User: Which sequence fits this backbone?
């Protein structure tokens, strides 16, 4: 093959998507709060157990930077709340409103992966803690374990399902509901 054709072949492969990941929606950066807490357990458990990949996304948690998905207590402008982590709105998942409009299926997949991660973290707190400390090795395991015992019940307290939010300005309550219903 002539060397001049190699760049053309590379462009064709990129256009066909062959350089992307094997998941349907690809890598999904998600920004977590700056401080490591037990409320992060479901995110790390979702990636540890590959619930994210099972839903067609690859969650990439980080504590800094900019991303279309954020777990936060105060959503920035243009970030629509789609799921409660600590209800009713102490800690929420929000997504860039353009992504929500343009790629709702991806947003539902992220929410579903997180629902699975948090639900299993409630059932298997020791495993969830192990998943967290594997990804955040400098985390205080004893402090997180004590915190997880208190935090996990609050994730679903008084809620019909994990992630349920009330309707309102800057919120889309249908996303968490649709993700929950997709689980059957």
Assistant:
């Amino acid at each position: 093959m002539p060397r001049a054709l190699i760049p053309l072949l590379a462009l064709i492969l990129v256009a066909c998507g062959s350089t992307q990941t094997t998941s349907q929606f690809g890598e999904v950066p998600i920004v977590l709060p700056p401080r490591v807490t037990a409320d992060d357990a479901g995110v790390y458990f979702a990636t540890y157990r590959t619930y994210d990949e099972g839903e067609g996304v690859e969650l990439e948690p980080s504590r800094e930077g900019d991303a279309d998905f954020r777990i936060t207590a105060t959503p920035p402008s243009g970030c629509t709340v789609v799921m409660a982590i600590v209800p009713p709105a102490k800690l929420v998942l929000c997504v860039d409103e353009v992504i929500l409009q343009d790629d709702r299926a991806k947003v539902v997949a992220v929410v579903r992966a997180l629902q699975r991660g948090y639900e299993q973290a409630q059932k298997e707190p020791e495993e969830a803690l192990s998943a967290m400390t594997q990804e955040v090795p400098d985390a205080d395991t004893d402090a997180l374990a004590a915190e997880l015992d208190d935090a996990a019940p609050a994730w679903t307290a008084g809620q019909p399902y994990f992630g349920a939010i009330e309707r309102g300005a800057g919120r889309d309550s249908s996303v968490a509901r649709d993700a929950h219903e997709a689980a059957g």
Notes: Confidence is low (pLDDT under 50) at residues 5-21.
